[in-house]
Structure to design on (529 residues):
Protein backbone atom coordinates (compact mmCIF):
# COMPACT_ATOMS: atom_id res chain seq x y z
CA UNK A 1 0.00 0.00 0.00
CA UNK A 2 1.49 3.35 -1.06
CA UNK A 3 1.97 6.12 1.50
CA UNK A 4 -0.01 9.35 1.00
CA UNK A 5 3.11 11.29 0.00
CA UNK A 6 3.90 8.78 -2.74
CA UNK A 7 0.54 9.28 -4.42
CA UNK A 8 0.28 13.01 -3.71
CA UNK A 9 0.90 16.02 -5.90
CA UNK A 10 2.47 18.73 -3.73
CA UNK A 11 1.84 22.44 -4.34
CA UNK A 12 4.30 24.98 -2.97
CA UNK A 13 2.93 28.27 -1.67
CA UNK A 14 5.22 31.22 -1.01
CA UNK A 15 3.02 32.82 1.68
CA UNK A 16 4.08 36.41 0.95
CA UNK A 17 2.70 36.10 -2.56
CA UNK A 18 -0.47 34.01 -2.50
CA UNK A 19 -3.29 36.08 -1.01
CA UNK A 20 -3.24 39.22 1.10
CA UNK A 21 -6.21 39.84 3.41
CA UNK A 22 -4.90 42.83 5.37
CA UNK A 23 -4.05 45.27 2.58
CA UNK A 24 -0.36 45.49 3.44
CA UNK A 25 0.61 44.07 0.06
CA UNK A 26 2.00 40.86 1.58
CA UNK A 27 0.14 37.54 1.61
CA UNK A 28 -0.92 35.86 4.85
CA UNK A 29 -2.33 32.66 6.34
CA UNK A 30 -5.98 33.82 6.34
CA UNK A 31 -5.42 34.52 2.65
CA UNK A 32 -4.33 30.95 2.04
CA UNK A 33 -7.31 29.75 4.08
CA UNK A 34 -9.62 31.71 1.78
CA UNK A 35 -8.17 29.84 -1.22
CA UNK A 36 -8.40 26.31 0.10
CA UNK A 37 -11.26 25.44 -2.25
CA UNK A 38 -9.15 26.59 -5.16
CA UNK A 39 -6.40 24.19 -4.10
CA UNK A 40 -8.66 21.28 -3.39
CA UNK A 41 -11.49 21.53 -5.91
CA UNK A 42 -10.46 23.87 -8.71
CA UNK A 43 -6.88 22.71 -9.04
CA UNK A 44 -6.99 19.34 -7.31
CA UNK A 45 -3.64 19.05 -5.54
CA UNK A 46 -3.23 16.74 -2.55
CA UNK A 47 -0.72 18.49 -0.32
CA UNK A 48 0.44 22.04 0.29
CA UNK A 49 3.99 23.02 1.23
CA UNK A 50 4.24 26.41 2.89
CA UNK A 51 7.51 28.32 2.73
CA UNK A 52 8.39 29.87 6.13
CA UNK A 53 5.74 31.86 8.00
CA UNK A 54 7.64 32.03 11.34
CA UNK A 55 8.66 35.17 13.23
CA UNK A 56 11.65 36.60 11.40
CA UNK A 57 13.37 39.92 10.72
CA UNK A 58 12.82 38.94 7.05
CA UNK A 59 16.41 39.50 6.00
CA UNK A 60 15.96 36.40 3.81
CA UNK A 61 12.16 36.56 3.73
CA UNK A 62 11.56 34.10 6.53
CA UNK A 63 14.53 31.76 6.01
CA UNK A 64 16.01 33.65 8.97
CA UNK A 65 13.83 32.34 11.80
CA UNK A 66 13.76 34.14 15.15
CA UNK A 67 11.20 31.81 16.78
CA UNK A 68 10.71 28.26 15.50
CA UNK A 69 7.39 27.81 17.30
CA UNK A 70 5.21 30.72 16.28
CA UNK A 71 3.72 32.65 13.35
CA UNK A 72 5.00 36.04 12.17
CA UNK A 73 2.27 38.62 12.95
CA UNK A 74 2.48 39.73 9.32
CA UNK A 75 1.21 36.26 8.35
CA UNK A 76 -1.33 35.89 11.19
CA UNK A 77 -1.47 33.88 14.39
CA UNK A 78 -1.17 30.32 15.58
CA UNK A 79 -4.98 30.22 15.57
CA UNK A 80 -4.93 31.12 11.88
CA UNK A 81 -2.46 28.31 11.35
CA UNK A 82 -4.75 25.87 13.18
CA UNK A 83 -7.71 26.99 11.10
CA UNK A 84 -5.72 26.48 7.92
CA UNK A 85 -4.57 22.99 8.81
CA UNK A 86 -8.12 22.02 9.84
CA UNK A 87 -9.52 23.32 6.56
CA UNK A 88 -6.96 21.38 4.54
CA UNK A 89 -7.50 18.20 6.53
CA UNK A 90 -11.27 18.57 6.21
CA UNK A 91 -10.77 18.34 2.44
CA UNK A 92 -8.47 15.34 2.71
CA UNK A 93 -5.39 17.41 1.97
CA UNK A 94 -2.04 17.40 3.77
CA UNK A 95 0.13 20.23 5.03
CA UNK A 96 3.93 20.28 4.76
CA UNK A 97 5.79 23.15 6.41
CA UNK A 98 9.28 24.47 5.82
CA UNK A 99 11.82 23.71 8.51
CA UNK A 100 15.04 25.73 8.57
CA UNK A 101 17.56 23.78 10.64
CA UNK A 102 20.92 24.98 9.35
CA UNK A 103 20.70 28.54 10.60
CA UNK A 104 18.52 30.81 12.68
CA UNK A 105 18.17 34.56 12.52
CA UNK A 106 20.90 36.54 14.27
CA UNK A 107 17.98 38.01 16.24
CA UNK A 108 16.94 34.61 17.63
CA UNK A 109 17.30 34.72 21.45
CA UNK A 110 19.65 31.72 21.14
CA UNK A 111 22.09 33.68 19.01
CA UNK A 112 21.74 36.87 21.05
CA UNK A 113 22.77 34.82 24.09
CA UNK A 114 25.46 32.98 22.17
CA UNK A 115 27.17 36.13 20.98
CA UNK A 116 26.88 37.88 24.37
CA UNK A 117 29.92 36.17 25.92
CA UNK A 118 32.30 33.25 25.42
CA UNK A 119 30.95 31.75 28.65
CA UNK A 120 27.29 31.92 27.80
CA UNK A 121 25.58 28.49 27.99
CA UNK A 122 24.36 29.03 24.42
CA UNK A 123 27.85 29.87 23.11
CA UNK A 124 28.30 26.40 21.60
CA UNK A 125 24.89 26.37 19.97
CA UNK A 126 26.52 28.20 17.06
CA UNK A 127 29.89 27.76 15.40
CA UNK A 128 32.49 30.13 16.90
CA UNK A 129 36.17 29.89 16.07
CA UNK A 130 39.36 31.87 16.46
CA UNK A 131 40.79 33.38 13.32
CA UNK A 132 44.12 32.41 11.84
CA UNK A 133 47.28 33.96 13.26
CA UNK A 134 47.38 36.39 10.31
CA UNK A 135 43.94 37.71 11.33
CA UNK A 136 42.06 36.01 8.50
CA UNK A 137 38.91 33.89 9.03
CA UNK A 138 39.18 30.32 10.37
CA UNK A 139 38.75 28.75 6.91
CA UNK A 140 38.36 29.77 3.28
CA UNK A 141 34.67 28.88 3.22
CA UNK A 142 32.43 31.21 1.26
CA UNK A 143 28.80 32.15 1.93
CA UNK A 144 26.29 31.14 -0.72
CA UNK A 145 24.99 34.71 -0.76
CA UNK A 146 28.44 36.21 -1.35
CA UNK A 147 31.55 36.98 0.68
CA UNK A 148 33.25 34.87 3.35
CA UNK A 149 31.17 32.45 5.42
CA UNK A 150 32.68 33.85 8.63
CA UNK A 151 31.99 37.17 10.35
CA UNK A 152 34.17 38.61 13.07
CA UNK A 153 32.33 39.58 16.25
CA UNK A 154 34.03 42.49 18.05
CA UNK A 155 32.36 41.80 21.40
CA UNK A 156 33.89 38.38 22.01
CA UNK A 157 36.76 38.51 19.53
CA UNK A 158 35.83 35.37 17.57
CA UNK A 159 34.38 34.51 14.17
CA UNK A 160 30.98 32.89 13.66
CA UNK A 161 29.96 30.76 10.70
CA UNK A 162 27.11 31.69 8.36
CA UNK A 163 26.66 29.63 5.20
CA UNK A 164 24.19 32.22 3.87
CA UNK A 165 23.74 35.82 5.11
CA UNK A 166 25.67 37.17 8.12
CA UNK A 167 22.19 37.54 9.65
CA UNK A 168 21.75 33.75 9.35
CA UNK A 169 24.31 32.20 11.75
CA UNK A 170 24.73 28.42 11.40
CA UNK A 171 23.54 26.32 14.33
CA UNK A 172 25.92 23.61 15.50
CA UNK A 173 24.11 20.30 14.98
CA UNK A 174 27.03 18.45 16.55
CA UNK A 175 25.88 19.91 19.88
CA UNK A 176 23.26 17.49 21.33
CA UNK A 177 21.42 20.41 22.97
CA UNK A 178 20.88 22.00 19.56
CA UNK A 179 19.68 18.76 18.07
CA UNK A 180 17.26 18.25 20.98
CA UNK A 181 15.91 21.82 20.68
CA UNK A 182 15.36 21.39 16.95
CA UNK A 183 13.62 18.06 17.53
CA UNK A 184 11.32 19.83 19.96
CA UNK A 185 10.52 22.43 17.31
CA UNK A 186 9.55 19.60 14.97
CA UNK A 187 7.33 18.09 17.66
CA UNK A 188 5.66 21.47 18.22
CA UNK A 189 4.34 21.40 14.64
CA UNK A 190 3.75 17.67 14.54
CA UNK A 191 1.56 18.05 17.64
CA UNK A 192 -0.42 20.71 15.76
CA UNK A 193 -1.04 18.18 13.02
CA UNK A 194 1.43 19.01 10.26
CA UNK A 195 1.94 16.09 7.92
CA UNK A 196 5.52 16.72 6.98
CA UNK A 197 8.50 18.99 6.56
CA UNK A 198 10.45 20.40 3.66
CA UNK A 199 13.90 20.71 5.17
CA UNK A 200 15.84 23.76 4.05
CA UNK A 201 19.40 23.12 2.81
CA UNK A 202 19.26 19.87 4.73
CA UNK A 203 22.76 18.64 3.84
CA UNK A 204 24.38 21.84 5.16
CA UNK A 205 23.76 20.88 8.77
CA UNK A 206 26.91 18.74 9.01
CA UNK A 207 30.27 20.17 8.03
CA UNK A 208 33.83 19.00 8.38
CA UNK A 209 34.45 18.95 12.16
CA UNK A 210 37.99 20.23 11.55
CA UNK A 211 36.84 23.12 9.33
CA UNK A 212 39.42 22.34 6.67
CA UNK A 213 39.71 24.65 3.70
CA UNK A 214 37.72 23.75 0.62
CA UNK A 215 39.97 22.94 -2.35
CA UNK A 216 39.89 25.56 -5.07
CA UNK A 217 38.07 24.58 -8.23
CA UNK A 218 38.43 27.55 -10.56
CA UNK A 219 37.72 25.28 -13.53
CA UNK A 220 34.16 24.85 -12.30
CA UNK A 221 33.41 28.53 -12.58
CA UNK A 222 30.81 29.18 -15.24
CA UNK A 223 30.28 25.46 -15.76
CA UNK A 224 28.51 24.72 -12.53
CA UNK A 225 26.25 21.69 -12.83
CA UNK A 226 23.28 23.70 -11.63
CA UNK A 227 23.48 27.45 -11.98
CA UNK A 228 26.42 29.76 -12.14
CA UNK A 229 26.94 31.07 -8.61
CA UNK A 230 29.90 33.30 -9.37
CA UNK A 231 32.79 33.24 -6.90
CA UNK A 232 31.06 30.54 -4.83
CA UNK A 233 31.84 28.13 -7.68
CA UNK A 234 35.58 28.81 -7.35
CA UNK A 235 35.68 26.16 -4.63
CA UNK A 236 34.73 22.49 -4.51
CA UNK A 237 32.36 22.48 -1.55
CA UNK A 238 33.60 19.28 0.02
CA UNK A 239 34.09 20.47 3.60
CA UNK A 240 31.44 23.11 4.23
CA UNK A 241 28.37 20.91 3.70
CA UNK A 242 27.26 17.32 3.13
CA UNK A 243 29.60 15.68 5.67
CA UNK A 244 28.68 11.96 5.91
CA UNK A 245 27.57 12.52 9.52
CA UNK A 246 24.53 14.27 8.08
CA UNK A 247 22.89 10.88 7.55
CA UNK A 248 22.95 10.34 11.31
CA UNK A 249 21.29 13.71 11.86
CA UNK A 250 18.62 12.77 9.30
CA UNK A 251 18.00 9.51 11.13
CA UNK A 252 17.47 11.54 14.28
CA UNK A 253 14.89 13.70 12.51
CA UNK A 254 13.23 10.59 11.13
CA UNK A 255 12.97 9.06 14.59
CA UNK A 256 11.05 12.15 15.71
CA UNK A 257 8.68 11.85 12.74
CA UNK A 258 8.21 8.17 13.50
CA UNK A 259 6.89 9.03 16.96
CA UNK A 260 3.78 10.08 14.98
CA UNK A 261 1.66 8.30 12.33
CA UNK A 262 2.29 8.77 8.67
CA UNK A 263 4.53 11.86 8.63
CA UNK A 264 6.90 12.81 5.84
CA UNK A 265 10.14 14.67 5.16
CA UNK A 266 11.84 15.91 2.02
CA UNK A 267 15.29 17.46 2.09
CA UNK A 268 16.36 20.37 -0.05
CA UNK A 269 19.63 18.88 -1.27
CA UNK A 270 21.43 20.23 -4.30
CA UNK A 271 23.53 17.32 -5.48
CA UNK A 272 23.87 16.58 -9.18
CA UNK A 273 25.66 13.29 -9.31
CA UNK A 274 22.83 10.72 -9.46
CA UNK A 275 24.55 8.17 -7.21
CA UNK A 276 25.71 10.72 -4.61
CA UNK A 277 22.21 12.20 -4.70
CA UNK A 278 20.57 8.81 -4.26
CA UNK A 279 22.81 8.07 -1.26
CA UNK A 280 20.63 10.57 0.64
CA UNK A 281 17.84 7.98 0.59
CA UNK A 282 20.12 6.17 3.07
CA UNK A 283 18.64 2.76 3.94
CA UNK A 284 15.15 4.22 4.24
CA UNK A 285 16.01 5.25 7.80
CA UNK A 286 16.56 8.97 7.21
CA UNK A 287 14.61 11.58 5.26
CA UNK A 288 11.89 10.07 3.08
CA UNK A 289 13.44 11.66 0.03
CA UNK A 290 15.92 14.26 -1.19
CA UNK A 291 14.33 16.76 -3.58
CA UNK A 292 15.21 15.90 -7.17
CA UNK A 293 16.27 19.10 -8.93
CA UNK A 294 17.77 17.35 -11.94
CA UNK A 295 15.00 18.55 -14.26
CA UNK A 296 15.67 22.16 -13.32
CA UNK A 297 19.34 21.72 -14.13
CA UNK A 298 18.83 19.88 -17.42
CA UNK A 299 18.66 21.64 -20.79
CA UNK A 300 15.30 21.13 -22.48
CA UNK A 301 16.30 18.61 -25.15
CA UNK A 302 14.92 15.13 -25.75
CA UNK A 303 18.25 13.39 -25.18
CA UNK A 304 19.19 15.57 -22.21
CA UNK A 305 15.91 15.06 -20.40
CA UNK A 306 15.67 11.36 -21.19
CA UNK A 307 19.19 10.59 -20.05
CA UNK A 308 18.69 12.51 -16.79
CA UNK A 309 15.32 10.88 -16.10
CA UNK A 310 16.79 7.43 -16.82
CA UNK A 311 19.86 8.07 -14.67
CA UNK A 312 17.80 9.31 -11.76
CA UNK A 313 15.15 6.61 -12.05
CA UNK A 314 17.91 4.02 -12.16
CA UNK A 315 19.69 5.53 -9.15
CA UNK A 316 16.68 5.58 -6.80
CA UNK A 317 17.09 2.55 -4.53
CA UNK A 318 14.40 -0.13 -4.82
CA UNK A 319 13.08 0.61 -1.32
CA UNK A 320 12.76 4.34 -2.10
CA UNK A 321 10.41 6.64 -3.98
CA UNK A 322 11.36 9.19 -6.67
CA UNK A 323 10.15 12.78 -7.00
CA UNK A 324 10.42 15.60 -9.51
CA UNK A 325 10.58 19.39 -9.32
CA UNK A 326 10.45 21.97 -12.14
CA UNK A 327 10.30 25.21 -10.21
CA UNK A 328 10.39 26.82 -6.81
CA UNK A 329 10.97 30.16 -5.07
CA UNK A 330 14.69 30.06 -5.86
CA UNK A 331 14.57 29.41 -9.60
CA UNK A 332 13.65 31.28 -12.74
CA UNK A 333 10.01 30.64 -13.65
CA UNK A 334 9.40 27.58 -15.80
CA UNK A 335 7.47 29.50 -18.48
CA UNK A 336 10.44 31.83 -18.99
CA UNK A 337 13.08 29.11 -18.87
CA UNK A 338 11.48 26.99 -21.56
CA UNK A 339 9.02 29.33 -23.31
CA UNK A 340 5.24 28.98 -23.14
CA UNK A 341 4.81 25.95 -25.45
CA UNK A 342 7.53 23.87 -23.87
CA UNK A 343 6.35 24.90 -20.40
CA UNK A 344 3.07 23.15 -21.26
CA UNK A 345 4.96 20.06 -22.38
CA UNK A 346 7.01 20.26 -19.18
CA UNK A 347 3.78 20.21 -17.15
CA UNK A 348 2.85 16.98 -18.91
CA UNK A 349 6.28 15.56 -18.12
CA UNK A 350 6.18 16.55 -14.45
CA UNK A 351 2.74 15.09 -13.90
CA UNK A 352 3.32 11.83 -15.73
CA UNK A 353 6.77 10.76 -14.52
CA UNK A 354 7.19 8.11 -11.83
CA UNK A 355 7.40 9.86 -8.48
CA UNK A 356 5.88 12.65 -6.41
CA UNK A 357 5.63 15.93 -8.36
CA UNK A 358 5.99 19.28 -6.61
CA UNK A 359 4.33 22.26 -8.36
CA UNK A 360 5.19 25.88 -7.69
CA UNK A 361 2.29 28.32 -7.26
CA UNK A 362 1.61 30.38 -10.39
CA UNK A 363 3.22 27.88 -12.75
CA UNK A 364 -0.30 26.52 -13.27
CA UNK A 365 -1.17 29.90 -14.83
CA UNK A 366 1.93 29.90 -17.02
CA UNK A 367 3.20 32.89 -15.03
CA UNK A 368 6.55 34.08 -16.34
CA UNK A 369 9.58 35.55 -14.63
CA UNK A 370 8.98 39.23 -13.83
CA UNK A 371 11.68 41.81 -14.56
CA UNK A 372 11.64 43.60 -11.20
CA UNK A 373 13.12 47.11 -11.52
CA UNK A 374 16.28 47.69 -9.44
CA UNK A 375 14.53 50.19 -7.16
CA UNK A 376 11.98 47.50 -6.22
CA UNK A 377 14.51 44.74 -5.71
CA UNK A 378 13.94 42.77 -2.50
CA UNK A 379 16.04 39.62 -2.57
CA UNK A 380 19.20 39.93 -0.45
CA UNK A 381 21.03 37.51 -2.77
CA UNK A 382 20.36 39.71 -5.80
CA UNK A 383 21.29 42.83 -3.85
CA UNK A 384 24.62 41.30 -2.77
CA UNK A 385 25.46 39.38 -5.95
CA UNK A 386 24.31 40.97 -9.21
CA UNK A 387 22.32 38.57 -11.37
CA UNK A 388 21.26 36.24 -8.56
CA UNK A 389 17.93 37.87 -7.66
CA UNK A 390 15.01 35.51 -7.04
CA UNK A 391 12.39 38.28 -6.95
CA UNK A 392 11.19 37.52 -10.48
CA UNK A 393 9.77 34.14 -9.50
CA UNK A 394 8.18 35.33 -6.24
CA UNK A 395 5.63 37.82 -7.57
CA UNK A 396 1.97 37.81 -6.47
CA UNK A 397 -0.52 35.19 -7.59
CA UNK A 398 -3.20 36.54 -9.93
CA UNK A 399 -6.79 35.58 -9.15
CA UNK A 400 -8.84 37.88 -11.38
CA UNK A 401 -8.69 41.07 -13.43
CA UNK A 402 -9.61 43.42 -10.56
CA UNK A 403 -6.99 45.94 -9.40
CA UNK A 404 -4.04 44.09 -7.85
CA UNK A 405 -5.35 40.90 -9.49
CA UNK A 406 -7.44 39.95 -6.45
CA UNK A 407 -4.16 39.32 -4.58
CA UNK A 408 -4.42 42.45 -2.47
CA UNK A 409 -6.92 45.25 -1.97
CA UNK A 410 -7.25 48.03 -4.51
CA UNK A 411 -4.59 50.67 -4.06
CA UNK A 412 -2.33 48.54 -1.85
CA UNK A 413 1.33 48.54 -2.82
CA UNK A 414 2.14 44.88 -3.42
CA UNK A 415 5.55 43.81 -2.07
CA UNK A 416 6.63 42.81 -5.58
CA UNK A 417 4.99 43.88 -8.84
CA UNK A 418 2.44 41.70 -10.64
CA UNK A 419 3.41 39.97 -13.88
CA UNK A 420 2.76 42.09 -16.98
CA UNK A 421 -0.10 40.04 -18.43
CA UNK A 422 -2.00 39.45 -15.19
CA UNK A 423 -5.21 40.77 -16.74
CA UNK A 424 -5.32 37.74 -19.06
CA UNK A 425 -3.22 35.36 -17.06
CA UNK A 426 -5.22 34.96 -13.86
CA UNK A 427 -7.34 32.19 -12.36
CA UNK A 428 -10.73 33.59 -13.35
CA UNK A 429 -9.78 34.31 -16.96
CA UNK A 430 -8.00 31.01 -17.41
CA UNK A 431 -10.88 29.01 -15.97
CA UNK A 432 -13.06 30.51 -18.69
CA UNK A 433 -10.65 29.48 -21.46
CA UNK A 434 -10.83 25.73 -22.17
CA UNK A 435 -7.33 25.70 -23.69
CA UNK A 436 -5.62 27.66 -20.89
CA UNK A 437 -2.55 26.50 -19.01
CA UNK A 438 -4.67 26.32 -15.85
CA UNK A 439 -7.12 23.96 -17.53
CA UNK A 440 -4.19 21.87 -18.75
CA UNK A 441 -2.93 21.49 -15.17
CA UNK A 442 -6.44 20.72 -13.90
CA UNK A 443 -6.88 18.05 -16.56
CA UNK A 444 -3.48 16.51 -15.85
CA UNK A 445 -4.15 16.46 -12.11
CA UNK A 446 -7.53 14.80 -12.61
CA UNK A 447 -6.06 12.28 -15.00
CA UNK A 448 -3.29 11.42 -12.53
CA UNK A 449 -5.82 11.00 -9.75
CA UNK A 450 -7.79 8.55 -11.90
CA UNK A 451 -4.83 6.56 -13.19
CA UNK A 452 -3.04 4.05 -10.99
CA UNK A 453 -0.48 3.62 -13.79
CA UNK A 454 0.48 7.31 -13.59
CA UNK A 455 0.56 7.42 -9.81
CA UNK A 456 2.21 4.12 -9.07
CA UNK A 457 3.16 2.35 -12.29
CA UNK A 458 6.57 1.49 -13.68
CA UNK A 459 8.48 3.84 -15.98
CA UNK A 460 9.74 2.37 -19.25
CA UNK A 461 11.40 4.69 -21.78
CA UNK A 462 10.66 3.91 -25.43
CA UNK A 463 13.40 3.51 -28.00
CA UNK A 464 12.92 3.87 -31.74
CA UNK A 465 11.17 7.24 -31.63
CA UNK A 466 12.23 10.10 -33.93
CA UNK A 467 14.95 12.53 -32.88
CA UNK A 468 13.59 15.27 -30.70
CA UNK A 469 10.99 13.04 -29.06
CA UNK A 470 11.09 11.57 -25.57
CA UNK A 471 8.53 8.83 -25.05
CA UNK A 472 7.77 6.48 -22.18
CA UNK A 473 5.14 4.17 -20.86
CA UNK A 474 3.72 4.06 -17.36
CA UNK A 475 2.27 0.67 -16.52
CA UNK A 476 0.55 -1.14 -13.69
CA UNK A 477 -1.46 -4.37 -13.71
CA UNK A 478 -3.72 -4.14 -16.76
CA UNK A 479 -3.37 -0.38 -17.26
CA UNK A 480 -0.80 1.34 -19.41
CA UNK A 481 -0.37 4.96 -20.49
CA UNK A 482 2.05 6.29 -23.09
CA UNK A 483 3.55 9.78 -22.96
CA UNK A 484 5.08 11.46 -26.02
CA UNK A 485 6.94 14.73 -25.64
CA UNK A 486 8.32 16.78 -28.52
CA UNK A 487 11.31 19.03 -27.98
CA UNK A 488 11.45 19.83 -31.67
CA UNK A 489 10.39 22.80 -33.80
CA UNK A 490 9.06 20.36 -36.41
CA UNK A 491 6.14 17.97 -36.66
CA UNK A 492 7.00 14.29 -36.46
CA UNK A 493 5.32 10.90 -36.74
CA UNK A 494 5.79 8.56 -33.82
CA UNK A 495 5.04 4.86 -34.28
CA UNK A 496 2.66 3.73 -31.55
CA UNK A 497 -0.10 1.21 -30.85
CA UNK A 498 -3.57 2.52 -31.54
CA UNK A 499 -5.05 4.42 -28.62
CA UNK A 500 -6.93 7.52 -27.51
CA UNK A 501 -5.49 10.89 -26.53
CA UNK A 502 -6.20 11.53 -22.85
CA UNK A 503 -4.50 14.91 -22.70
CA UNK A 504 -2.70 17.08 -25.23
CA UNK A 505 -0.53 19.96 -24.10
CA UNK A 506 -2.49 22.31 -26.38
CA UNK A 507 -5.77 21.04 -24.86
CA UNK A 508 -7.17 20.49 -28.36
CA UNK A 509 -6.82 16.77 -29.13
CA UNK A 510 -8.53 15.05 -26.22
CA UNK A 511 -10.49 11.98 -27.26
CA UNK A 512 -8.73 11.76 -30.64
CA UNK A 513 -8.21 8.19 -31.80
CA UNK A 514 -4.63 7.58 -32.89
CA UNK A 515 -3.39 4.43 -34.56
CA UNK A 516 -0.17 3.01 -35.91
CA UNK A 517 1.53 6.35 -36.09
CA UNK A 518 0.86 9.52 -34.11
CA UNK A 519 1.45 12.96 -35.61
CA UNK A 520 3.16 14.98 -32.88
CA UNK A 521 3.22 18.74 -33.41
CA UNK A 522 6.19 20.97 -32.63
CA UNK A 523 6.77 21.17 -28.84
CA UNK A 524 3.60 19.22 -28.18
CA UNK A 525 3.08 16.57 -25.52
CA UNK A 526 0.44 13.84 -25.63
CA UNK A 527 -0.76 11.33 -23.07
CA UNK A 528 -2.31 8.32 -24.77
CA UNK A 529 -4.10 5.32 -23.31
C1 LIG B 1 17.20 27.57 0.50
C2 LIG B 1 15.91 28.30 0.37
O1 LIG B 1 15.10 27.66 -0.58
C3 LIG B 1 16.26 29.72 0.02
O2 LIG B 1 15.14 30.46 -0.36
C4 LIG B 1 16.96 30.33 1.20
O3 LIG B 1 17.36 31.64 0.86
C5 LIG B 1 18.19 29.51 1.58
N1 LIG B 1 17.91 28.10 1.62
C6 LIG B 1 18.71 29.89 2.93
O4 LIG B 1 17.83 29.44 3.92
Amino acid sequence: MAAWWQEAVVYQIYPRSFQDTTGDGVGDLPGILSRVDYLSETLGVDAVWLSPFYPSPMEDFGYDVSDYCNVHPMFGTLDDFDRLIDALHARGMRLIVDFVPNHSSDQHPWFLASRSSRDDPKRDWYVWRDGRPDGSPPSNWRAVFGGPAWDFDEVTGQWYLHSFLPQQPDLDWRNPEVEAAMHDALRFWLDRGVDGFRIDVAHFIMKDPEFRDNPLAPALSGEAPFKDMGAYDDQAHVHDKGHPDVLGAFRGIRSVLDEYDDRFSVGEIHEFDPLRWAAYYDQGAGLHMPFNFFLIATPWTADGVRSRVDAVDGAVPSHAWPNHVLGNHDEQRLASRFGPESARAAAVLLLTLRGTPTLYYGDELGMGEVAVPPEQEQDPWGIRVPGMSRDGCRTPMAWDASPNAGFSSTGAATWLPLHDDWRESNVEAELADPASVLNLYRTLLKMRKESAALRLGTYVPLDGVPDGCFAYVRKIDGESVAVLISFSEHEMDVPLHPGTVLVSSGMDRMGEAVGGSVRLRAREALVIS
Residues 60, 63, 100, 164, 200-201, 268, 329-330 surround 1-deoxynojirimycin (CB under 6 Å).
